[in-house]
Write a structure and sequence with these properties.
single chain; alpha+beta; 26% helix
Length: 197
């Protein structure tokens, strides 16, 4: 007698395995898990930048915070006004004339006043930052980058369902800021014009 599986038994086994894989995928959801990990990093880095600016201003209240009506972005560009991203950055058409500011890729991470945040953290007695963090995705077309506005406000778009607006651990609507699309930290969460990314 030959021992083996019938076609029906094989089909039932494949169906059961498919159902188990589908259930595991829905429960684990690797895309959402990766999004949550990136959002966790964003929340941590934006909070660290906020604390660093607080510490820098305590050490040197006269430190240069940046130009008024300027949104400093964590995006590298050869143009200081982010001309390379003009087609994907949101238009700012409220109140005074606002503009974007970018730095070159070589200067992006520098904490000496030449990085994407124009504050010089390197000449302080206690250096709160030795290099500037950037968004884990850092892609203008997808809307994922950090933004800093003197006065001060730091913004980051969150991508996971968990941390986004009305999610299980909503950080966007509970941060005290005026945007329902970004996580905001800082001293004045109303200084930045409302930009939907």
């Amino acid at each position: 007698m030959r021992k083996g599986f019938t076609l029906l038994e094989l089909l039932i086994t494949v169906a059961i395995i498919s159902i188990v894989v589908a259930v595991v995928y829905v429960v684990i959801n690797p895309v959402e898990t990766l999004s949550q990990a990136r959002d966790g990093r964003r929340i941590s880095e934006v909070s660290s930048i906020d604390e660093a600016i607080t510490l820098a201003l305590q050490q040197n209240p006269a430190i240069f915070e940046g130009d008024s009506y300027t949104i400093y972005l964590s995006l590298p560009d050869t143009s200081p006004t982010c001309d390379g991203y003009v087609s994907v950055l949101p238009l700012i058409s409220v109140g005074p004339i606002w503009h974007y500011a970018c730095v070159t890729r070589e200067n992006l991470f520098k904490a000496n006043g030449y990085g994407w945040i124009p504050m010089n953290f390197s000449n302080l007695a206690i250096r709160p930052l030795t290099s500037l963090p950037i968004d884990p995705v850092n892609n203008a077309a997808k809307g994922f980058y950090y933004a800093y506005v003197p006065g001060w406000e730091i913004d980051a778009k969150l991508e996971s369902k968990k941390y986004s607006f009305r999610g299980a651990d909503d950080r966007v609507s509970l941060d005290g800021g005026d945007s329902t699309s970004t996580f905001e930290k800082g001293q004045n969460l109303l200084v930045s014009p409302i930009i939907t990314r």
